[in-house]
Specification:
This protein is α+β, with helices and mostly antiparallel strands. About 30% of the residues lie in helices and about 25% in strands. It has a five-stranded antiparallel sheet. A hairpin with a 2-residue loop joins strand 12 and strand 13 (about 190-195). It is globular, with a radius of gyration of 18 Å. The model has no long low-confidence stretch (mean pLDDT about 95).
């Protein structure tokens, strides 16, 4: 590690004012702290978001679940208003990670193997920042890349609660990240399928599966589909072809569980 300053604002306005330049927001720190230890980042100041009460908590109204950006995974897991989302949160990392990591930090970081981005994209969620609201389809731009601008903070994520949904994750045992994870959500507007852990482009939708499942929300609807291995991740845990196979398998399991 190295020397840096830390500031703990108590309001979103104060946090936004403190950011800028080399300063960086600190939420749960589950990604940022290891990054600092490895000296892959060296901000002059960390702006902690953990003391901002207005960024914590969960509420539901009009079929939409709103989760404050500084809400930890354990609280999402315990809520239960959106069962598939709570089950996803309950299997992130270990108890220490779930009690420190936050949904806002996960979404803002957009790790290519993180779970929340798949839930947000499949659910058609809205990412709320201190300056605007961004549809999930427009928010996730690529591996570790989002539509966030300098000084912008994820203050909340709004999830429309679907009729049916499920998340299936093939776990990488050491990290507990998704080697491949698939979130399937069925709403009155149709079916959305989001894949994490598999692509060099980060979280993405499997549109061919969506079309098939819109015609028939059953595992058999996927029988004739194949997943291209092009641009899928290759590492010591699995080849692109292996991940392509897992995408279809995990999608089938999610549809079965949701049904």
């Amino acid at each position: 590690m190295y020397a840096f300053d830390i500031e703990c604002p108590t309001t979103i306005a104060e946090a936004a004012q403190a950011l800028g330049g080399e300063n960086q927001a600190l939420s749960g720190g589950q990604t940022l702290i290891p990054t600092l230890k490895a000296r892959l980042a060296s901000p002059e100041k960390l702006v902690s978001l953990t003391a901002i009460a207005e960024m914590k908590g969960i509420s539901s109204a009009g079929g939409v679940l709103s989760i404050g950006g500084a809400t930890c995974h354990a609280d999402v897991a315990a809520d239960g208003s959106y069962k598939a989302l709570s089950e996803l949160a309950a299997h992130i990392g270990d108890p220490a990670v779930r009690n420190r990591g936050t949904i806002g930090g996960s979404v803002a970081n957009n790790d290519p193997a993180a779970c929340y981005p798949a839930a947000a994209l499949a659910s058609g969620a809205t990412i709320v920042t201190n300056t605007r609201e961004i549809a999930a389809d427009d928010f996730f731009l690529g591996m570790f890349e989002t539509a966030l601008e300098e000084g912008e903070i994820v203050t909340a994520v709004k999830f429309p609660i679907p009729e049916k949904a499920n998340y299936q994750k093939f776990v990488q045992p050491a990290s507990r990240f998704a080697l491949v994870g698939v979130f399937v959500a069925k709403t009155t507007d149709g079916v959305r399928v989001a894949v994490t852990g598999a692509s060099n482009e980060g979280v993405h939708r499997w549109t061919a599966a969506e079309e098939a499942l819109n015609a028939s929300f059953a595992v058999s609807a996927l029988d004739d589909l194949t997943v291209s291995a092009d641009n899928l991740i290759a590492d010591l845990h699995g080849s692109p072809e292996y991940r392509a196979h897992l995408i279809k398998v995990m999608t089938g399991r999610a549809v079965s569980a949701a049904s």
